[in-house]
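STRUCTURE:
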């Protein structure tokens, strides 16, 4: 199951990504928001805890730039959230960092590209390479 959440700056893009998830028969849980003005850290916490606690396998977070919501998510122990604006970064963060949440900017990434980034993120496995495992351990608190 995929956790998805956003603030008002990411609402429209969230709805496009939900269309992709539904078209590909991927189960998801929408943690909000629903377009109203909100504070992004609250949604980062909801999605982050859902992933860390095992309720969801991976997460998708969206705010205006993706910056604030990714910073907020990375404050949660066990979250490895990567802000991605291209498919190569989405692939690399899964293969090398075993990122469990991706962040996107609703005001900086168009829906077509965002869907490709999300598809890459969700369909790329962690390499499990010893050097990457070692490096991940070094960044854990």
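SEQUENCE:
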């Amino acid at each position: 199951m995929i956790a998805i959440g956003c603030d008002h700056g990411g609402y429209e893009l969230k709805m496009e990504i939900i269309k992709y998830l539904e078209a590909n028969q991927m189960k998801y849980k929408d943690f909000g928001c629903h377009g109203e003005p909100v504070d992004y850290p609250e949604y980062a916490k909801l999605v982050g805890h859902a992933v860390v606690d095992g309720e969801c396998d991976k997460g998708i977070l969206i705010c205006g730039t993706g910056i604030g919501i990714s910073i907020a998510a990375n404050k949660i122990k066990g979250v490895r959230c990567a802000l991605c604006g291209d498919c190569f970064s989405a692939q690399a963060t899964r293969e090398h960092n075993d990122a469990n949440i991706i962040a996107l900017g609703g005001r900086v990434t168009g829906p077509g590209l965002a869907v490709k980034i999300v598809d890459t993120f969700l369909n790329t496995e962690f390499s499990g390479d010893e050097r990457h495992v070692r490096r991940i351990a070094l960044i854990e608190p």
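REMARK: The mean pLDDT is 97.
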